[in-house]
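Subject: TIGR03619 family F420-dependent LLM class oxidoreductase

B.,
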Amino acid sequence: MQLGFSLPVFGKAAGTPGGVARYAREAEQAGATSLWVGDRLLSPVAPVVSYPGYDTMPEEFHTAQDPFTALAVAAAVTETAILGSSTINATQYQPANFARLLTSIDVASNGRLLPGLGIGWSPDEYAAVGIPMSERGKRLDDLLDLLDTWWTKETVAHEGVGYTIAESHVDLKPARKPPIHLAGFGEKSLRRVAERADGWLPVWSVPEQYPADVLTGTLAKLRADAEKAGRDPGALGVALRVNVNPGTEPELIADSLAKIVPALQPDHTFVDITYLTGSVDEHLDLSVRLLELTADR
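Prediction pasted inline below.
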């Protein structure tokens, strides 16, 4: 089983100087095949919408690193690991800057970037960046159009949602066109995955919250819808995020992975251990332990 992990970008470990670089380097050396970031701009004291399962926001989000910086740091200290995001709240960023950031990270990593994008759920974060939350869907569609142009055309000109890019030379291109994966379980989100994305970002929880056929059935429908849209259904990738609740034993995580990975057959699987560790050392120790437990599965 190929296995990756969340970088320590949230919680106490995220405040450790040099922690992301050290973890990324040593996790890859231990056998991690992918390294991942999430995206949290704010942890409001009294959020308009609370984090799912909480009355407010998890304490881990009180400390949050910039996802692009973390990916760039990881790119500099690793050689082979896929560098992914699950997810970056893409519509909270200025599109031209966003396109340049992704391109630069892919170049720095020699083509190892897997951008997992979403539209976020926090009204507080949208208010902080001055973007209407109601425009999330059309802004994501617009961004996907821009990224395709940015990565494939010698000159870029674009009339976007609230911005204009004059015809410009954009000679910096990714080492290979990054495969954009999109998050979501809603009808509109899944339709966008089937019709526009290179892959899907499903989520599995440990302890398990629903049967595996919720994911396998959704993936089968996605691929059928992709085929109806004239796309190759087999080309739709899957990057599985495994969220782990506090206090979960490593053995239970490994057992759950042994169940969901053969059923879903994702291209990439990573475990988000944010809620299980309080330091970079603990982050590393748990990652190594999970690699050992899943080595023969």
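Residues 4-294 form a domain with the TIM Barrel fold (CATH 3.20.20.30).

T.
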